[in-house]
Specification:
Elements: E1 2-3, E2 6-7, H1 11-28, H2 35-58, H3 64-82, H4 87-115, H5 124-147, H6 160-178, H7 193-266, H8 271-284, H9 297-312, E3 316-321, H10 331-350, E4 359-367, E5 370-378, E6 384-386, E7 389-391, H11 403-412, E8 417-423, E9 426-434, H12 435-438
Parallel strand pairs: 3-4
Antiparallel strand pairs: 1-2, 4-5, 5-9, 6-7, 8-9
Helix pairs in contact: 1-2, 1-3, 1-4, 1-5, 2-3, 3-4, 4-5, 4-6, 4-7, 6-7, 7-8, 7-9, 7-10, 9-10, 10-11
Amino acid sequence: MILGQLPDIPFPYSGLAEWVACLVYILVLPRRHSIIRSVALLALGLLALQGMHWVRGLLPIMLWVPGMLVVFAIMHLLLSACIKLPQPGVLYITARAVTTAEFIAALHWQLYVFFRPEPFADSSGLKVSVLLMTFAVLAIVGYFAERRHLFADGSWESDWGAAVIALGVATVTFAMSNISFVTLTTPFSGRSGLEVFYIRTLVDLLGWVALYAQQEKHRELQLRTENATMTGLLRSQHEQYLLAQRNNDEMNRKYHDMKHHLAVFRAESDPAQKNEYLDSLEQAIKGYGDQTRTGNAVLDTILAAKRLLAAEHGIELNCVADGSLLDTVAPIDIVAIVSNALDNAIEGTRRVADPELRAIRVAVFAHGDFVMLRVENPFDGVLHKTNGRIVTRKRNSTGHGFGLRSIEAAAESYGGTMTVAFNDNWFSLRVLLPVANVVV
């Protein structure tokens, strides 16, 4: 297309810009297939985009918009085939990829036209040089910019509402940036060649910035919601810990009183009556003294409360722990890690059909230069995942599913890690904390 004696972007360059934009998001987001299959799909996508642009070049101007819609559909199919996201997310990413591609192509062509040695010269060497520089720089900048909030683990979310808004922004951006190439009779059309190129590049940049800002705001709101939920969970768990501590103290007092009662009953002169009282009292306090003494009062209290909860569901909780290794860990972090880990273990073990297999193993021990907390439990072999993350199986997910995230956040605050493993219907959660950060 010619506007004021200035050539417009060649179709092969437009197709390449669209392919590069798709590549950026495929590299950032979780892939659906292996690297080899992804490369094959990318090659097919490049051929499809170049082929469609070649066909579009043969069409009359009135079919330019339908032709571009087909191009965008190819981009959507390529992204759908390569990235592992639900459809609202793929549609959202397609809108962003379209805007990114438009900006890359527009900036490349504006720079080329500006730096041409003569007004009407066509320098292939300069064209390719500017293309390589512009495409490479914008692809790298786009990759690192998008990786800030489109995390590869899929923890970000995009619903239909966000996808529709992104499509609207992309549509307006595309229309306003290209309107001068369709007609000059609108209030928004440019009149001279370089002015038209400048308008297109600027509008495309603003569209990309608007979509980037939308994701930043969405991510900020999401983090606020998660933080508020996790803070509420931690506060609730801390309150449970305080309640469990009071119950633990009360239990110890009862146990102490019971010993005095036993002394009185042992002084009973009637042997039969004495033995009857003694047997009933021993039965009443059975298990009250079976408390884990790990060397850490917070850990002891949590284990005591969770052992009672596990016992209500016919689950045995076994623990071998050196609680002194956790002495410098903040109580609220111990509560976050241990309570969430045991709650998840109890919930998973409850679903095991065989009562003989319902047992949870807890261990805290030194492991080289680290402290290891390990919680292992059987489960029914069913795990629900979303974008690689284990999520709650409860129907109402609101307020649920943050347990593992809470454990991970608490561990990372000390420079540690959280890992999970599962096989043969056995689930293992491990929290590794550097000794330097937890031991005085």
